Amino acid sequence: MIYISSVVVLVIVLISYCLYLDRKRTQGLPPGPRLLPIIGNLHLAPSKNPWDKYKQLFKQYGPIYRVIYGQQTLIMLGDNETVHNLFDKRSSIYSSRPRLPMAF
User: Fold this and answer.
1) Nearest 5°: CA angle at 58, between 52 and 64?
2) Which pLDDT score, from 0 to 100, does residue 59 have?
3) CA dist., res. 95 & res. 99, Å (int)
4) What does the alpha-carbon distance between residue 73 and residue 93 come to, in Å, rounded to a whole number?
5) CA distances from 92 to 31, 76, 81, 82, 95 (A)
6) What is the dihedral of CA 79, 80, 85, 91, to 10 degrees?
7) d(CA 53, CA 23)
8) Could you give the CA distance from residue 78 to residue 65 in angstroms, rounded to a whole number?
9) What is the enclosing helix (H) or strand (E) of 76?
């Protein structure tokens, strides 16, 4: 009996910790679908006609939204106007190269 209650408590703590990590991981990111523990939005990954699913998410969450497949976070841009604004008008923000300390 004690063994079963310990396992139940351990499972509750593990699920709570996963939910905490997911909430922390999405802070500062655009809105997106609700995450499942560990797999993120992998259950929403389209296998056929992915453009239909992404179009549905675009209508629901706006022109910039995020999806998380496992540990991979993707920021999706839903229309040409958003892409143009981010990459042409604000290119100076996104065109820098990452610092490579091992190369120097």
Assistant:
1) 140
2) 92
3) 13
4) 20
5) 24, 20, 18, 16, 5
6) 120
7) 23
8) 8
9) strand 72-77
What backbone torsions phi and psi does residue 77 show, to the nearest 5 degrees? -110, 120
Whether residue 78 contacts residue 64, with contact meaning beta carbons closer than 8 Å, is answered with yes
* In the predicted structure, residue 8 carries a pLDDT above the cut 70: yes
Is the predicted pLDDT of residue 97 greater than 70, yes or no? no
* Residue at 4: amino acid letter: I
Please give the Cα distance from 31 to 4 (Å, whole number).
38
Residue with tokens 């497949």: 69
Backbone angles phi, psi at 40, to 5 degrees: 70, -125
The identity of residue 3, as a single letter, is: Y
